[in-house]
Specification:
By secondary structure, the chain is of the alpha/beta class.
């Protein structure tokens, strides 16, 4: 290989200096300006010595040349000999060239600096803030819920790091969430998988970190890489909450995040909620009300005064809180056996409006024995369920449904999705058949004879954009409602959607339950971000093992039409081995935001429960 020439070395050196940015360019222009001024001034001293005396010597010539280089218009007022005027013209022409380049360099450099400031690349100087890494539809739910949770706290901060333009993030949240009250929002542009960008968020002083699953191909790979970056960084590690889209990636995510990470299985959670809602009308509304920060929240309480008492007796121990379970050394138990004794180190799990309102009742509440009903609940027999549509979680929904229904039940899948019916192996209680059907077509739906089914589940088609998929779901729901009205048929309808804003539109269809998948996951992430220690409680709540939430007919528990206090309802449920946590009034089922659900009711207030009303209990299947 030949040796570099002197010219090549000089060119290489020059290129390296130019690559140093705006400062280096200005330096070269300054050097060029000095060279031009000295060269022109030297020629004036040599070629026109008479002009030197007329312009106050050599210092005057230097100043005149400098002014012509910086302000070429001054040459119009010059007088003197032709060589002198020619040299001033050269200085002016060189000045035009240099000043033009300088303006361009400064403009480009200033624009770049403004863009950098616009993106938000400065390090956050906050403490006790909640950090959200990534961007998805769930970010609006999480921010909205955290704003509610921090409504009484001055100076709370939510910091978001995402690979988006900072003003775009702020505008989107301002549009979808609105006023954030006392909570400040700080956005930064960066990649959550890059350690240098993570340093912008001051994670050492953060209260908790939420990692969102992006709306892209292989979202879990992005989440797992972010968890690795968080685990490997130096300094303090706040609790981390992350959403995983595929159940098969949970083990890898847990390994990547370490013991400090709390994972939410998005597909599993939504699938279980859809199945539970299809069997128990109103289930999704109850869960949404329990997960949001509008009403009652879940707290862990230690009360040594209750140690040694059976769980059943603690159900009436609090004046303004509802007991739902225990946390022992062996783990969380919701609705444990009524004779379970409370240990000295055990914690009681309660629902309350606020932690400061949880206090022991002075006296046991009066129980109205004459209104307690001892009605044996009949076990449902085999039924028929229609599944309209198909998506990536449909097979998991069918497997969970197989675990809920009695043997001999029938499931018909109607969809034009090419993968409809795939992965349905090892079912024990369901007999499944697949039919090709365009689920938005009225005549295709009528050919299914929907009236033969007790339950209908409408799934969102993942082949389409979420907004378009919701539009198709609304079309299907409207067709089903019209068919019910025209043919006089009645069957429960559970629908899956993506956007919470479509719930209002879907209310026209009078579907029994509408599961907003992104909202459910967002609410759960917000709860865990605020209270990471509740991860075990929510994990138990959405697990098919143990007790689950059931809205059951109120007349199975108390006399219909008679005014009763909630402690009487709690006692009626206790005698069945169940824990009552509230009720749902049919008259308010269409009224947002609670849709008739009342959790942790006022103990002293009388309520009349009639036909269509439900008592919400934690019970075994």
């Amino acid at each position: 290989m030949s040796r570099a020439t002197v010219r090549e070395r000089l060119r290489y050196w020059f290129d390296n200096t130019m690559a140093k940015g705006t400062g280096a360019l200005i330096g070269w222009l300054a050097l060029l300006s000095v060279t031009l001024i000295l060269a022109v001034s030297g020629l004036v001293l040599w070629l026109t010595p008479g002009e030197v005396n007329a312009h106050e010597g050599w210092t005057g010539v230097l100043w005149m040349t400098l002014m012509r280089a910086l302000s070429p218009g001054k040459i119009a007022s010059d007088t003197g000999t032709a060589p002198f005027l020619g040299l001033m013209l050269v200085a002016s022409l060189g000045g035009i060239f240099i000043v033009s380049i300088l303006v361009g360099v400064l403009s480009t450099g200033l624009k770049g600096k403004i863009e950098e400031l616009r993106k938000g690349r400065s390090r956050i100087i906050e403490s006790g803030h909640t950090v959200i890494l990534g961007w998805s539809e769930q970010v609006f739910t999480i921010v909205s819920e955290l704003v509610k949770a921090h409504a009484s706290q001055r100076g709370s901060v939510i910091a978001i790091l995402a690979d988006m333009d900072k003003p775009a993030m702020e505008d989107a949240i301002r549009t979808r969430v609105g006023d954030t009250g006392k909570t400040r929002l700080v956005c930064r542009t960066g990649r959550p998988t890059e350690p240098a960008d993570l340093d912008l968020m001051n994670l050492d002083a953060a209260r908790s970190v939420v990692v969102l699953s992006p709306q892209s191909e292989e979202p879990d790979a992005h989440v797992i890489k972010t968890l690795l970056a968080l685990a490997k960084r130096a300094g303090d590690h706040p609790p981390v909450v992350a959403a995983i889209a595929a159940s098969g990636n949970m083990a890898a995510a847990r390994l990547a995040g370490g013991p400090g990470v709390h994972l939410v299985d998005s597909v599993d959670t939504v699938s279980r909620l859809i199945v539970q809602s299809s069997r128990q009308s109103g289930m999704s509304v109850v869960c949404m009300d329990l997960l949001n920060f509008d009403g009652g929240e879940i707290y862990l309480r230690s009360d040594p005064a209750l140690a040694g008492q059976p769980y059943g007796k603690t159900l009436g121990a609090y004046a303004s809180a509802t007991v739902i379970g225990l946390r022992t050394a062996g783990g969380v138990m919701l609705n444990p056996p009524m004779d379970t004794l409370l240990g000295t180190s055990d914690q009681i799990i309660v629902i309350a409006q606020d932690d400061s309102l949880i206090r022991l009742a002075g006296d046991a509440a009066a129980i109205d024995e004459e209104h307690i009903r001892d009605h044996e609940r009949a076990r449902p027999g085999p039924g028929r369920t229609l599944l309209l549509g198909w998506n990536a979680r449909a097979a998991q929904i069918v497997r969970y449904l197989d675990g809920y229904v009695p043997a001999g039940s029938v499931l018909d899948v109607a969809s034009d999705h090419p993968g409809a019916g795939d992965g349905l192996v090892g079912l024990h209680n369901l007999t499944v058949s697949v039919k090709d059907c365009e689920t938005t077509d009225r005549y295709a739906l009528e050919s299914l004879e929907v009236g033969l089914y007790q339950h209908v589940i409408v799934l969102s088609d993942d082949r389409h954009h979420p907004h378009h998929a919701d539009t198709r779901t609304l079309m299907t729901l409207l067709q089903l409602r019209d068919m019910q009205a025209t043919l006089g048929e009645r069957y429960s309808i559970v629908s899956e959607m993506h956007d919470e804003n479509n719930r209002t539109l879907a209310e026209v269809t009078e579907a029994d339950d509408i599961v907003i998948s992104d909202t459910v996951v967002g609410l759960l992430l917000a709860q865990l971000a605020e209270s990471p220690h509740l991860s075990e409680v929510f994990g138990y709540l959405f697990d098919s093992r143990g007790s689950e939430i059931y809205p059951r007919p109120a007349d199975d528990y108390v006399t219909g039409g008679a005014p009763v206090a909630f402690p009487t309802v709690v006692e009626a449920a206790r005698r069945r081995g169940e824990t009552a946590i509230g009720y749902r009034l049919a008259a308010g089922s269409g009224e947002a935001p609670h849709f008739g659900v009342v959790l942790n009711p006022d103990r002293s207030r009388l309520v009349v429960l009639g036909p269509g009303d439900s008592v919400i209990v934690l019970a075994e299947r």
